[in-house]
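Box 3.1 A note on notation
Throughout this textbook, protein chains are presented in two layers. The first layer is the amino acid sequence; the second is a token string describing backbone geometry. Keep the layers aligned when reading.
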Amino acid sequence: MPRIILSLALIVVVMGAITFGATNAFFSDTETSVANVFTAGAIDLKVDNESYYNGVFNALTSWSQADLNDGNGPSTDGTYKFFDFDDLKPADYGEDTISLHVDTNDAFMCANVTLTSDDDNTQTEPEAEVDSNGLATGELADLVNFIWWADDGDNVLENDESIISQGPIGALPLNAPYELALADADENVWGGVGPVDGDETYYLGKAWCFGTIGTDPIDQDDSSTLMSPAGNNGGTALSGEPEDGGITCDGSSLGNESQTDSLTADIEFTVVQSRNNPGFQCEENCVISEEVTLIPDSGFENPIVTASSLWDIFPSPAGAWKVMWRDSLTNTFGGQTRPEPANLEIHKGVVGTPDEGLQYAELDTDWGGPFGAGDGEPASVTIYQDIPTVIGKEYRIQFSFGARPNTAASENRLETKWGGVVVDDTGFVLGAGGDIDWDVRTIDVVATTTMTRLAFTDLGTSNSIGTFVDDFRLYTESCNLPE
């Protein structure tokens, strides 16, 4: 009997344990999100180029889509060059279609071109006879002209495509980037404003000419019946390249000044994300920089006055300046016949001290020079330079104006035009006794075209006396481009 009682006690203990476990269970459910990930997006610019030299496809300056710093370019040194030609002749020309592809996101796109050298190298005998600068600077950069446009990818400048920039590469100051906004918050050269689309291809046309470049845009419907550019014999068209890309090239005016000269330049493209980046500008933190002037021969130090009179006249172009007579219909005076082209008169201290350097100019010039017959002839001129500019960019014009000493106010008046618009007028200024009283004048302007004429005209009495100028400078904005 005692054993039976003990067994019943054990059963009670076990049952009690089971009952306790049941009273501690809760309703529950579990949901798990696994392998959560943040992955940064990508902005990767790829560039390719299709290049033609004198109408013939050029493999050494052509490549398929690539990163330009990968060391696998078609040039012998593994680089990618948009131009690489070492035996130029007048009227040589080229055309490239550059393709830009952003992977994979929408992006703003910027570009800049930097002239890195402009060298005379050596001089042949025919060059030495006409090159007054000697080995100091090269002339080639001033004679190779470029045109850039927003292309549709067919290697042709057509009448519905916008020219972005044009002019001689030598107009760029050395080692100062020429900045262009291809697509930012304010503009897009392919139409509208804002960024380019990711995974889309965009095209730039680039043409150059060793000589005078011109445009003859092709109608979209006529692109299959194209002729050779004016001034060239054309070439064999390969890979579907038209023989006339809507560009003309004429080298007939070139002489021997640029023989053996060379230039180098860098071309850079930059892309920046557009999402979460409203209001982005390709040119950021821009201020007028007075470190480099965009005007060649700003102080009239070239040509050099060698006459014993300490002044002389030089026909247009005189140095970097083009010259034209102010009074276009006055061809004769006092038995003299007005020369063509117009003359620029340069002084080497004959009347007073230059404001800068050794020479200055008089804009009421002379028909016959220091040894010519007669005086008092109507000889007022306009001098000008055509400057490659960026639409919307700010520029600063600075120069020294001086009234000729001991002359009436009616003899001395200077007008300044920027792109055909008067931006400064000195009014009539009395020429007092003593040395030249130089007045440094500064005018801030904005470019509205890709090529802007900067012109200065003598508005005093046109009688070969009055209006001195010196030390012309043109500055522009220096901007911090995005890294």
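The helical segments are 2-22, 125-130, 140-143. The radius of gyration is 35 Å.
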